[in-house]
Amino acid sequence: MSDELKTQRTRAIADALSIGQLERHVLLCAQQKNPRCCSYEESTRVWKYLKTRLKELGLASAPPPWQGQDTDTPPPPTTAGNGRVLRTKVDCLRICEAGPIAVIYPDGVWYHSVDEQVMERIIQEHLIGGTAVEEYVFARDRLANR
Q1: What is the pTM assigned to this prediction?
Q2: Residue-wise pLDDT tens for the chain (146 aa)?
Q3: What domains are there in the chain, each with its CATH number?
Q4: Whether 66 contacts 75, CB under 8 Å
């Protein structure tokens, strides 16, 4: 595949996911290869919950259905997404304690002990309301303020 075609296809996927227009990005350690901060099953439940709730609330856009298929052709017309939040599952955020761990960017807010109930609070209070759920915050990055 040519570099130009790769660029076309990845730009179309980014547009469908609302990348470039996002307000926040949630990274969650989930489905780890070598679980240490919580069980694989627990992190899977939280990941599925996050995924479902962001869709239900209209906060996330979906990738195009052709993503990862027929990679030698130009992308078909794709509708731009209108989501505000992107979610990413990561193998490990290197805390390895009191997980699952979540971090919200660009805010740089790190959360511990994120089960489904805590994730719902993060969604409602932080992602929608703009206020961190302080009782689960254990660190803050200053990346957004540099």
Answers
A1: 0.90
A2: 789 999 999 999 999 999 999 999 999 999 988 888 999 999 999 999 999 999 999 999 998 888 888 888 888 888 888 999 999 999 999 999 999 999 999 999 999 999 999 999 999 999 999 999 999 999 999 775 55
A3: 3-66+79-145 (3.40.30.10)
A4: yes
Q: Residue 114 is encoded by which pair of tokens?
A: 């994120």
